[in-house]
Amino acid sequence: MPTEESNPQLWTLRFKQHKVTVLLFVEQTQPFSSIKADLLNALQGRGYSEINQRPLPSDAEDIILGLPIDKNDPSKGWIGLDIPAMDMEDETGNKKKMGGKKSVLNASPLGAGLRDGSLLAFKFRSENAKKDDDGLDLDDSDWDVIMPSYDEE
Fold it and tell me: Measured between alpha carbons, how far apart are the two ends of the chain, in Å?
């Protein structure tokens, strides 16, 4: 039987909400919009209609991704992956616009600085969520992620 060669462009990302964990194989440069659609399809394919009494959205754009504040200790909390637009000054005093919906930082796992095996949280956008001018969520609370521990009985 021939062995398959590994593809270094293909990464495994772990997505977590409540007690649900989904592993997805993604390209490093695959847009997050496509990854969110794959995540929603994976959840629907496994028969999920809700997670912890929160219904799955009908549109993948209603999925919000987050990163652990401390990648070595996810229990410290999560922050949204999308970087809102902001004006920054460089060392010469010139203003530059950073972040925003079309930023390379928000475009793909590689642009966001993720690596193979990275852990991300996901949640579903609520109807009354506050958004900035680019349509990015401003609320970083309510990440429902339960990490398993050895202390559980």
Answer: 43
Pairing state of beta strands 10-17 and 119-124?
Answer: parallel
pTM of the model: 0.77
Nearest one of 17, 30, 146, 121 to 71, comparing CA atoms: 121
Distance CA 28, CA 26 (A): 6
Q: Are strands 63-68 and 54-55 parallel, antiparallel or unpaired?
A: unpaired
Residues forming beta bridges with residue 20, ordered by sequence position: 17
Is 112 strand, coil or helix?
Answer: coil
Q: Strand 119-124 vs strand 86-89: parallel, antiparallel, or unpaired? A: unpaired
The CA R_g of the chain, rounded to the nearest whole Å, is 17
Q: pLDDT tens across 11-47, in order? A: 999 999 999 999 999 999 999 999 999 999 999 999 9
d(CA 128, CA 38): 25
Break the chain down into helix, strand, coil percent, rounded to 5. 15, 30, 55
Q: Residue 23 in 3-state DSSP? A: strand
d(CA 142, CA 109): 23
